[in-house]
Amino acid sequence: MDIFASMRTFGHEQLLLSHDPSCGYYGIIAIHDTTLGPALGGTRFWQYGSTEEAVIDALRLARGMTYKAAVAGINLGGGKAVIVGDNARVDREALFRAHGRFIETLNGRYITAEDIGTSPADMEYIKLETDHVAGLLGLSGDPSPVTAYGVYVGMKAAAKVCWGSDALDGRTVAVQGAGKVAYHLCRHLHGDGVRLVVTDIHPEKVRRVVDEFGARATEPDAIYDEPADIYAPCALGATLNDETIPRLKIRIIAGAANNQLAEDRHGDEVERRGILYAPDYVINGGGVINVYGELNRWPAERSLGKAGEIFETLLRIFEIARTQRIPTYRSADRLAEQRIAAVAGLDKMWMGKKQ
């Protein structure tokens, strides 16, 4: 892997690695773009197959965070951190304090929060070493409910474009994943009278959704073959690929996972097949909105209301795609890039001499 070539291709500013042998800490921080503000991105704790795989994930996720914040209209850049290891380990204090010290060396250029494999309790350990952390207990906490709400309203926007109405009652949604965001999404959809088909690699999570929301369970690999109106990827990324896309029997893709397209060309293939794709970093932007709200001391209602704006943002992206005859993932990129370029082009004002 040519790391500098990868950074140059996607415009990353920094890639940093850290190791603390005392607790077995292996951390990576990727900073993509800080034009709009300090880089925000959660810390993902995952057992990667290789260091290269972890670096690639950090770079891709950081870039997605830049675009996510830009489209959401908030003043943050994009970054991401990953900790390589078993996220089931119970001795977490030293590990996350080591991570906090790593973050502190960046002096505010990067702000972290919760992500896959981490929790608000882990953020409290990080807080012992740095102030550049959000998602804390007693403040915004778990961003999953706000993320799920944004996905829910985004799904309704896609329905409006696809079927002329944002009503979801009577529709069938195949949900891949039954974790925190997926659980809250299923709660919203169940309240709207949606028929749910759900899968997860953890059977106990599936049982909870089945028991509470009347969902039908299916095996993890079988989710791609389920006839449904909407496919909602809410687990790991790259589930839209050469093997899965031909199997889909749906009209809309709208879910919470990051990096749903294995490669950009898969967005072209989805478009070619007449499937309406709600770009991942747009529809799942509620999480970053939630964290931004915490950093600016917004009340919870304001963050939820801001997440509700995802409905109109997606309608705008779908319209750009229609009028310019481009796939929706490209129209989302254009909207994000326009905002970044507009802010980058602002003239600096003279503020007087520094003392």
Strand residues, percent: 5-15%
Average pLDDT taken over every residue: 94
The low-pLDDT segments are none
CATH structural fold name of the largest domain: Rossmann fold
Query: Can you say what the CATH homologous superfamily of the largest domain is?
Result: NAD(P)-binding Rossmann-like Domain
Number of helices: 13
How do the strands and helices of this protein lay out in sequence?
Blueprint: H1 3-10, E1 14-20, E2 25-33, E3 39-40, E4 43-46, H2 51-72, E5 77-84, H3 93-104, E6 110-111, H4 120-127, H5 144-163, E7 172-176, H6 180-191, E8 195-199, H7 203-213, E9 216-217, E10 230-233, E11 252-253, H8 264-272, E12 276-277, H9 280-283, H10 286-295, H11 300-308, H12 310-324, H13 328-344
Parallel strand pairs: 3-5, 3-6, 4-5, 7-8, 7-10, 8-9, 10-11, 11-12
Antiparallel strand pairs: 1-2, 2-5
Task: Describe this entry's structure for a reader.
By secondary structure, this protein is of the alpha/beta class. It has two domains: 113 residues, Rossmann fold, CATH 3.40.50; 196 residues, Rossmann fold. It is 44% helix and 15% strand. The strands form two sheets. Strands 1, 2, 3, 4, 5 and 6 form a six-stranded mixed sheet that branches. Helix 6 links the parallel strand 7 and strand 8. The longest helix has 22 residues. The chain is globular.
